[in-house]
Design brief:
five-stranded mixed β-sheet; 2 domains; 7 helices; 13 strands; Dihydrodipicolinate Reductase, domain 2; 29% helix
């Protein structure tokens, strides 16, 4: 595939390095207009969707909610499939509708990478029966909640032991109120019973050093529990390594002859 990547951060850099040994070609990176003149190796930087080169097969969004909001519809209307890890942005019903409309106009598809969580295929299957309850619990060390709404609820600097829940509510509210922290909650909601019905708890836990994600579900299929302790990327402690890996896995899934 001939690919363009939105962003040049830690996840974008991971994807670039991972694709270096594959048949895929990165044709350009889409960045803010004021960064087009920046140096990023020998890569081509462009400042708008219109400036992307011709004959692209795919665009990968690695730059967060704002990038999906700014560029997603234009990419899809241009007829280009888009892979994004910014799942939480779809909690905004207006944005979700706009992206769907743009995809229809461009005859393109928005593919959501699984991000920092697994087991979404299990939830998708269970939803085809009666899926009664889905709960997502996100635990991070106090510093993982810095510069988020959690700072208005608890004193993160003074939390030296124990765990404090600073959010209880729906997946929609979690994704909208914690745009940099609740992509997983959104992914769980989309795979299962939706933004309003998925229950979310977010916890600052001084006893852990990694991000812990837990899903519990109950329905016709039985009961299900999933837990993962995720490491961050070395270049950015706020970026999940698994989220970056999920982008590459989604690309393999799309380009492979046999998919699971």
């Amino acid at each position: 595939m001939r690919i363009a990547i939105i962003g040049t951060g830690a996840i974008a850099s991971y994807v670039r390095d991972a694709l270096a040994t594959t048949p895929h070609t990165i044709a350009a990176f889409l960045v803010r207009p004021d960064r087009v003149s920046d140096a990023y190796g020998s890569e081509c930087l462009v400042g708008s969707v219109a400036a992307l080169p011709d004959e692209l097969d795919l665009v990968i969004d690695c730059a967060g909610h704002g990038a999906l909001r700014d560029h997603g519809a234009a990419v899809l209307e241009r007829g280009l499939d888009l892979v994004s890890v910014s799942v939480g942005a779809l909690a905004d019903a207006d944005l979700s509708s706009a992206l769907e409309t743009a995809a229809e106009r461009g005859n393109a598809r928005l593919h959501l990478a699984s991000g920092a969580i697994g087991a979404l295929d299990c939830l998708q299957a269970a939803e085809k029966g009666v899926l009664e309850t889905v709960t997502y619990v996100g635990r991070k060390p106090p510093k993982g909640w810095k510069n988020s709404l959690a700072e208005t609820v608890i004193d993160l600097d003074s939390l030296q032991s124990g765990a404090v829940t600073h959010f209880c509510g729906s997946a929609r509210d979690a994704a909208l109120q914690y745009p940099k922290n609740a992509n997983v909650a959104a992914a769980v909601a989309l795979a299962g019973i939706g933004f309003e019905s998925t229950e979310v708890r977010l916890i600052a836990d001084a006893g852990i050093f990694v991000n812990v994600h837990e899903i519990e579900a109950q329905g016709d299929f039985g009961t299900f529990q999933f837990r993962i302790s995720g490491r961050s990327l070395p270049d950015n402690p706020r970026s999940s390594a698994l989220a970056a890996m999920s982008v590459v896995a989604k690309l393999d899934q799309m380009s492979g002859r046999i998919a699971i």
